[in-house]
Amino acid sequence: MELDFFKMAKEIKDELVEIRRDFHKNPELGYEEHRTSEKIKDFLRREGIEFSETAGTGVCAIIRGNGEKTIGIRGDIDALPLEDKKGCAYSSAVKGKMHACGHDAHTTILLGVGKVLNRVKDRLNGNIKLLFEPAEETTGGAQVMIKEGVLERPHVDSVIGLHVDENIEVGKVGIKWGVVNAASNPFTIKIKGRGAHGARPHTGIDPIVIGSSVVMALQNIISRELPPTDPAVLTIGSFHGGTAQNIIPEEVVISGIIRTMRTEHREYVKKRLVEVVEGIVLSMRGQCEIDIEESYPCLYNNDDTVKTLLSSAERVIGKENIKILDSPSMGVESFAYFSMERPAAFYYLGARNESKGIIHPAHGSLFDIDEDCLPIGVAIQCETAFRLLK
Hints:
CATH topology of the largest domain: Aminopeptidase
Low-confidence stretches: none
CATH superfamily of the largest domain: Zn peptidases
Strand order of the largest sheet: 1-2-4-3-5-16-6-15
CATH class of the largest domain: Alpha Beta
Largest sheet: 8 strands, mixed
Strand content: 25-35%
CATH architecture of the largest domain: 3-Layer(aba) Sandwich
């Protein structure tokens, strides 16, 4: 008999809602998710699912079926440093912390997936790994989990993940082929000159003037050196220097962010930033220090894995409720680390409902989801993993 994962997921909806609201009421920030982690482990113990700890507060669970093939399913577990202003029964009870990005829902969905698939493990043509990732909002627990071997023993063949989306109506999903999210490289530039009186600039080396030239020149990397068909951003977010109107300071500090959609563009922009900054600063008699951080990589969806996701989503919610997304997001997502290691599929689960007033943006103090999305997420994850094992 064919498995009906949506029916199975709807049967546990009340439990999913209860779990999600508990997480929402008790948010924890990255690598501080001790209560969250214990709740996850307690649930897994009750369901008879084996697990191990990873990345400090993360958890890696495994459901062993029949065969060596293994599918990983990821859910992030951390909250944000934000005040919850919703005023509902399950609003955050922790001052200054809130699940404002839906990770409480992601964790709940992954627990639901574990419950459902564990019930039918005898019909799985392989294994399922449940990857509960800490610190997605900060440094990304995914890279730590990978270094600690969660994609091995047994070897994970594909990875799937989701993110609730307040811009997509509940009952629908958004799927993007190819690049889904940008890569991120925060940077800091320290420019050193020589201080002087503001009335006698010729006696000093003005780092503010040098820095201003640097800011303008860096914009040309995106507008004149990358193809206009490929999105990329280089933003200066801060420029600090000086203490008074009539003093030329000794140094300024400039910081910003690079966002790129292709790995080759990421490497090119980093290289050119160094060349441009060093060239301008040297030509204007200054000195500089440049620090470019290696943050999240591009998130790539694998075509074959997406095809399986599409057919699975069609079975659960119907083709008419699947939106193919045209444009990638300039935001970052730590699932990208998994997508760089294994064939992956990542998609957006609709959580918006205007009739219920669920319209507020993620990372905002009024963010919420329509909990009808929870069993949909469980069903699509189960169906996709089940088909990938075939």
